[in-house]
Amino acid sequence: MTDVRSSTVDGILRRSARRVPHRTAVRYGDRMWTYRELDEAVSAAAAVLRGAGLRPGDRVGSYGHNSDAYLIGFLGCARAGLIHVPMNHHLTGDELRYLVEQSGSSLVLADPRLAGRLPDSTRVLPLRDTDDSLLVRLRTAPADPDPAAPESDDLVQLLYTSGTTALPKGAMMTHRALVHEYVSAITALDLAETDRPVHSLPLYHSAQMHVFLLPYLAVGAENTLLDAPDPERILDLVAAGRADSLFAPPTVWIGLSQHPGFADRDLSALRKAYYGASIMPVPVLERLRARLPGLAFYNCFGQSEIGPLATVLGPDEHEGRMDSCGRPVLFVEARVVDESGREVPDGTPGEVVYRSPQLCTGYWDKPEETAEAFRDGWFHSGDLAVRDPEGYFTVVDRVKDVINSGGVLVASRQVEDALYAHPQVAEVAVIGLPDERWIEAVTAVVVRRPEGEPVGEQELIEAARARLAPFKAPKRVVFVDALPRNASGKVLKRELRERFAAS
Predict the structure, then answer these.
(1) Residue pair 128/111 in contact by the 8 Å Cβ criterion
(2) Beta-strand pair 245-248/223-225
(3) Do the Cβ atoms of 401 and 431 come closer than 8 Å?
(4) How far is CA 239 from the centre of its chain?
(5) Is pLDDT of 7 > 80?
(6) Using CA of residue 465, residue 470, residue 472, residue 475, what is the dihedral sign?
(7) Where does 200-332 show beta strands of DSSP type E?
(8) What is the pTM assigned to this prediction?
(9) pLDDT tens digits for range 457-501
(10) pLDDT, position 409
């Protein structure tokens, strides 16, 4: 019997459907779903999945682009008591096989155009665009006489880490953890039923799905889903008054700010701007705020293991702390510790550790990694940060990305901000490369702006020296056409270190 106190991910939608049944819940392309229709589709999807022989606790992969079918597939898994496994739709070969096999997925919901990339033995159910797809089967799904209702502490999703430094790990998320995170997001980000958010980042990534789309469904807002973060389409929606809220990583905000329409179109309808998933360069944020002075900016920070929202810097908190990621959200407790796990004084760099009901229960089938992350009564994030006396956190770096230059630790973010101030720098990533003299040489990997006079290596080194202590300035600058990134916008510094280590 279901616990009457249970609160589940799919229950978020059910409550909204009863409260505002006829309000538009989701628009995708030419299709529109009211809250009642979406809730009924989710129940039908759960019946289809159970009819396919799946049982509570089975893992179901999801390998597709953004769509209403993708959302219905996730919520259908949640309602059926299945464990949803979102998979990066850019993955192929061994990386994709690893996720399917490591998760033990019994079935993969896939876009037909992508299904051929899956391992040959994979059982596939098309999400859409075929006569036997999940979206089509919803129309004739039989009523389930005995639905297996999930409980709060059941697993609902394996959120695989981005794998920027090692093989991805599947963070085991319960219904309870994600529902707590939704409440944290709603309160910290001022999400309201009157908002008109556009969701363009991949739904397999935890930020777009769990910080924005599901919390917005919880409050009853009207949501627009896009296949991808197309600047032209986003600007069209804003200019037409159909979108007033947008989340994007810094890379997308940079692309929007450089789009020709950004300078001359009427963007006054845009009221809330959320950024996160990777560090926003301060010079870029300053340019955005100068162009749209009335826009409320929110910095969202966290990681998959905590649902993923951990801290927020609100629009009235930016002045004087533009580089801060804010303070912990409602259900998160955080502190900064040294290598021994002792809390360090304010202003001292250390690793951020968390306690929270939002946290995962561990990593799927990885007991050693789980024990390493959960120790001393805290979850160890791997992020290096400082906290100020008012409780605001500023992320300095990933612990593994700090550069040991001549025995002195250099935070790559500080060097990157100095270089972003140069007008000819479009993007930059700072890494440490092996060096006989310096142990690790501070190295800047730069994407130059296409317009204007190309900037050279020595000019950028001198520009950094004008803003930084000499030992922090790059010893070397290399130029590339683009930086390698994962789908959430994080730079894959591991790839850069491997690429340039021997050059």
Answers:
(1) yes
(2) unpaired
(3) yes
(4) 26
(5) yes
(6) positive
(7) 223-225, 245-248, 272-276, 296-302, 309-313, 327-328
(8) 0.83
(9) 899 999 888 888 777 889 999 999 999 886 556 788 878 888 888
(10) 63
